[in-house]
Write a structure and sequence with these properties.
Elements lengths: L3 H20 L5 E4 L25 H7 L5 E4 L2 E3 L15 E4 L6 E4 L7 E3 L8 E3 L2 E3 L2 E4 L3 E4 L4 E3 L2 E3 L2 E5 L3 E4 L4 E3 L2 E3 L2 E2 L6 E4 L2 E5 L2 E3 L2 E2 L6 E3 L2 E5 L2 E3 L9 H4 E3 L3 E3 L2 E2 L18 E3 L4 E4 L5 E3 L4 E3 L60 H9 L20 H8 L8
Parallel strand pairs: 1-2, 2-4, 3-5, 4-7, 5-8, 6-10, 7-11, 8-12, 9-13, 10-14, 11-15, 12-16, 13-17, 14-18, 15-19, 16-20, 17-21, 18-22, 19-23, 20-24, 22-25, 23-26, 24-27
Antiparallel strand pairs: 28-29, 30-31
């Protein structure tokens, strides 16, 4: 028999559990669709379903979000006052594209900048997978950060202008993190054509900073405090002194490791840095994938193509950086540049590992088989399970997988 005190204790515990569950906050996805949305809708569905529907502008999506929410932005070109000078107002949210930066574009039309961070945002305030172009402002033509520390990931920041500093991005007293992003064709009339950092620690990881200009100093990057570069390519930038090393990165003793810097002299120190031509695929058309004789991803054709040369930036990143999202052959080491550490990383000449070892645990076993089954008949691009690399997981991939069954790393 259950005594009264035990029953009371159980009741109290049950009530506490119910209360705790009722207090849980479930992160929501707010949807934005510039073509089919309406800012009077709640944003809780990607298309109108009679009750819920997407917002039309990005700022409306941001304004409807609370901490931990995601604002999912559909493909399209976003213009106008509610799609520029976008302000998180301190929210810990993620604003990301639905399908990546190629087809999701914020075009500021020289009337403002893309994002404005000025409310103490932290790294859990994230911008991901967007192109920001044609911004124009006194400071930070593409993105402005003051006293804030957001994360910028998988973005293309291009053709933005600043009257003074930071054509692509301006950071002052801001400990910003930028990952797997491209800064291209930005201009500042004074310092920092691509990136301007002052007053706090800024971390740039696996980024490509190319063909930016500054009227005075630091066509690519200007560092006025402490900036840390790792696994980056900084190339083809110009300032008032030409295209020498200081035009690529200039300022107060930047920390640079495992990066490719044009006109590299070694005078800035660091480990694993090179100054060799990175062999971009087609820089004239803004394709900054690295050439590879084994294969590189050609976005316009959605296929892998082979080149006659291989970039020295392949397998040249930090050995401790996470390379496991790169498709085999990956050489078990991350590439430099914006595509390093992603499924679009150009292929290595080093065939270490195994194409059927999808979880990268040095053997091909039942876990890998389940991964193949989960993706069976998928026609998505850039899947590891598409061993034949033809954008279709089918019998040819199963046959190749079977041939590697129970393989183990020697």
């Amino acid at each position: 028999m259950i005594n009264k005190s035990s029953w009371q204790a159980a009741t109290v515990i049950a009530v506490l559990v119910i209360l705790s569950l009722s207090c849980e906050v479930t992160a929501a996805q707010l949807n934005v669709n510039g073509d089919a949305g309406n800012d009077s809708w709640d944003g809780l569905a990607p298309e109108w379903d009679g009750t819920h529907g997407p917002k039309k502008t990005i700022q409306a999506g941001i304004d409807a979000a609370v901490d931990s929410d995601t604002v999912n932005v559909a493909d399209g070109i976003y213009t106008g006052t509610q799609n520029e000078n976008l302000d998180f107002a301190g929210r810990a949210i993620t604003v990301r594209s639905e399908n990546g930066p190629t087809d999701c574009i914020i075009d500021c039309q020289n009337a403002g900048r893309g994002f404005y961070f000025n409310s103490g945002e932290l790294p859990n305030s994230i911008v991901e997978g967007l192109t920001i172009r044609n911004g124009h402002a006194a400071y930070g033509g593409g993105i402005y950060c003051y006293g804030s520390s957001p994360t910028i990931r998988d973005c293309v920041i291009t053709s933005n202008r600043a009257t003074y500093h930071g054509g692509g991005i301006y950071c002052y007293d801001s400990s910003i993190i930028v990952q797997n992003s491209i800064f291209c064709g930005n201009r500042a009339l004074v310092d920092g054509g691509g990136i301007y950092a002052s007053g706090w620690y800024v971390q740039i990881e696996n980024c490509t900073v190319v063909s930016n200009e500054a009227g005075s100093t630091g066509g690519g990057i200007f560092d006025d405090y402490e900036i840390y570069l790792i696994n980056c390519v900084v190339w083809g930038n110009e300032d008032g002194g030409g295209s020498v090393e200081s035009a690529q990165i200039s300022g107060n003793a930047p920390l640079i490791n495992y990066s490719c810097i044009q006109s590299w002299t070694g005078g800035l120190g660091g480990t694993g840095n090179i100054g060799s031509d990175p062999f971009f695929a087609d820089p004239a058309n803004d394709d900054f994938h690295l050439k590879s004789q084994e294969g590189r991803w050609k976005t316009s054709d959605l296929q892998w193509v082979a080149d006659t040369v291989t970039s020295p930036c392949i397998d040249a990143g930090d050995a401790d950086s996470d390379w496991t999202a790169e498709l085999w052959p990956h050489g078990k080491r991350i590439n430099m540049g914006a595509y390093g550490g992603t499924a679009e990383a150009s292929m290595s000449l080093d065939t270490s590992g195994n194409p059927a070892d999808f979880d990268e645990d040095d053997d091909v076993d039942f876990t890998d088989f389940l991964s193949l089954v989960d993706n069976w008949l998928s026609n998505e691009s850039l899947l590891a399970q598409d061993i034949s690399r033809d954008n279709f997981v089918n019998l040819s991939d199963f046959a190749m997988f079977a041939g590697q069954w129970l393989w183990q790393e020697p």
